[in-house]
């Protein structure tokens, strides 16, 4: 909405599902959005056209934000990661994930575990090769 008029300034058809987060760049030039489709989209506010698509999350995106000089975007997801994106190249510069207690533990062939126990261990970082 326009602050002075209260009228809609621009409307985008941005994602094919629910959007959970949007953020304007500090200079007002860009808008970034993220949501259920696991895609971060960068928009030119003046033209309303998409500029970039950042893909890599494996689950819903909860938050998107620009850094102070608008060169980076950070996105957080239900996949338990934070990704840092380069605005100019679209490259994912870094993926951050908190350490999980069983990260990398190989449970392939382990006997005596129920399916529920295996699922719980995998959620905490364990791996199983088929």
Strands of the widest sheet, in order across it, are 1-2-3-4
CATH class of the largest domain: Mainly Beta
Instruction: Enumerate the spans where pLDDT stays under 50 for 5 or more consecutive residues.
Output: none
SS class: mainly beta
Distance between the termini: 53 Å
Number of strands: 8
Residue share in helix: under 10%
Gyration radius over CA: 19 Å
Give the overall shape: elongated
Number of domains: 2
Specify the CATH architecture of the largest domain.
Answer: Beta Barrel
Task: Quickly describe the structure.
With 130 residues, the protein is mostly beta strands. The protein has one helix and eight strands.
Defining key terms:
mainly beta; 130 residues; four-stranded antiparallel sheet; elongated; Thrombin, subunit H; 2 domains
Describe this structure in words.
With 130 residues, this protein is mainly β. It folds into two domains: 19-96, Thrombin, subunit H; 99-130, no CATH class. The chain has one helix spanning 115-123; strands at 19-24, 30-35, 39-44, 50-55, 61-66, 72-77, 82-86, 92-96. It has a four-stranded antiparallel beta sheet with strand order 1-2-3-4, with no helix packed on it. A hairpin with a 5-residue loop joins β7 and β8 (92-96). It is elongated, with a radius of gyration of 19 Å. InterPro entries: WD40/YVTN_repeat-like_dom_sf, WD40_PAC1, WD40_repeat_CS, WD40_repeat_dom_sf, WD40_rpt. Pfam families: WD40 (PF00400).
């Amino acid at each position: 909405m326009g602050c002075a008029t209260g009228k809609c300034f621009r409307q985008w058809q941005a994602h094919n599902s629910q959007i959970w987060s949007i953020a304007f760049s500090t200079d007002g030039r860009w808008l970034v959005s993220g949501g259920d489709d696991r895609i971060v989209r960068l928009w030119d506010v003046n033209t309303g056209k998409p500029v970039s698509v950042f893909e890599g999350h494996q689950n819903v995106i909860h938050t998107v934000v620009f850094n102070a000089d608008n060169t980076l975007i950070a996105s957080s997801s239900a996949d338990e990661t934070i990704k840092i994106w380069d605005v100019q190249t679209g490259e994912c510069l870094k993926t951050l994930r908190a350490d999980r207690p069983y990260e990398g533990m190989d449970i392939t062939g382990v006997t005596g575990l129920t399916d529920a126990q295996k699922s719980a261990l995998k959620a905490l970082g364990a791996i199983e090769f088929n």
